[in-house]
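Kindly inspect this chain:
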Amino acid sequence: MNKLQGFEFWKITLKGARYVVAPMVDQSELAWRLLSRRHGAQICYTPMLHAQVFVRDGNYRRENLYGEVCAEDRPLIAQFCANDPETFIKAALLAQDYCDAIDLNLGCPQMIAKRGHYGAFLQEEWSLLEKMVSLANDKISVPITCKIRVFPEVEKTVQYAKMLEKAGCQLLTIHGRTKEQKGAMTGVASWEHITAVRKAVSIPVFANGNIQHLSDVQRCMEETGVQGVMSAEGNLHNPALFEGQSPPVWEMAEEYLEVVRQYPCSLSFVRAHLFKLWHHTLQIHTDLREELAKVRTLDGMAELNAQLKRRCQEEMARQEAGEKDHGSLPFPHWICQPYVRPAPKGPGSENGQPGSQPKAVCVKRALEDADAPPEYLSKNKQKKKARNPKKNFSMEQKPKYIKCEQCGNPKGSKCVFSLCRGCCKKAAFKATADCPGHGLLFKTKFDKAQRQKASEPDRQASEPDRQASEPDRQASEPDRQASEPDRQASEPDRQANGESLTQTCPALPSASPEQPGRDPVA
């Protein structure tokens, strides 16, 4: 199949793109991609698409790719997560006419990827990945690319990248963190790994990680020699990152809401973007955070943005005459700027300070904390209480559940074993017993299977008799069919006899009103 490969693909199809918006689940939708392109982004990825769902669900295809066709949104790379070569190829064939390349996600470190067995949790299965990339390179009409995370060892990361290149990968994006570096343990991405891979392969390489400002983009290119730089979190907090600008947050929000009106998307996507854009300001104006969580329309979000703008402009006016205090931020909170995650805590530390005792082993949460004050509510419950003032959150008034005898979870009130459902299922299976309270019918199903097994010999024994009587039934069939014309011919005579009988038997007289006691037969 004739298609551009490697550096030709990057220079011609991708137009030598250097500024890249990362694939982000529920965050890199069409409206956000268009906003980013207007402010310097040169290439964008779709959100990660699930290959199996993409193949079987036409609505999913329409909502996530087919319905988002826009001439302004090119070049575009569609990213899929998959762990089956055939499914991945089917999804790629369905998507190839709507994008410029297909990307295989080998970098997602989240728990959902672990449960689904895709993303970064495939990085040890080299033979499977080699087959997936090779088949895609042979069968689809657009180039295949990959996005990966690094191994702790530089050499293993290099071998991993060379294996993908040999299988047919035409462009490689490297996130310089391991799959364990996520959430509170994100830490700093390793540009050393990216540099080593860039020197070892002969295909274009994009770098991902530690990108918060345009200066970081330029420094990354100089230090690693990559062809392009990808941004995810930095782009979410400042869509104008690749322009080198830091506009007020309300300006970006206004422009984004205008794009959403033209290219509608889920309201949850819009809310998530505004939370990111307003992150620092919402630390000051906390009431707006609650309002944003509750608003249900684009007009309501626009009104909140106008309210935030007025408050920030009033604060700007007050600060003009006085001393400027940005706290720990490089700019005032109303300016688009990155969110810097706190450094990961070391083992046995608390808030950066060494701990005197090791942390306890993680166990299932207790039903109630008897030592905690009854009026204490977690932050999550405080938010729920603000949204539902009439709802009861008092621990004292809530029913105390009886604990399971084995694990401490609430036991089923009608369980015959006095256990929770998980423990009851194991006990009922082991004892071949029923538990109607949990809807477990192991004994019933076992008895039914035994009855069916016992009745099988009788059914098989009666089968020869049934088969032996079959010839007699078939032999009598011609006689029955031969007598059918005689029966039909005699039908008119039978009906005529019935009519003559009716005429020769006159109706019996009924009793008259004057003689109520007379016998009508006499």
Observations:
- The chain has 19 helices and 13 strands.
- The longest strand covers residues 76-81.
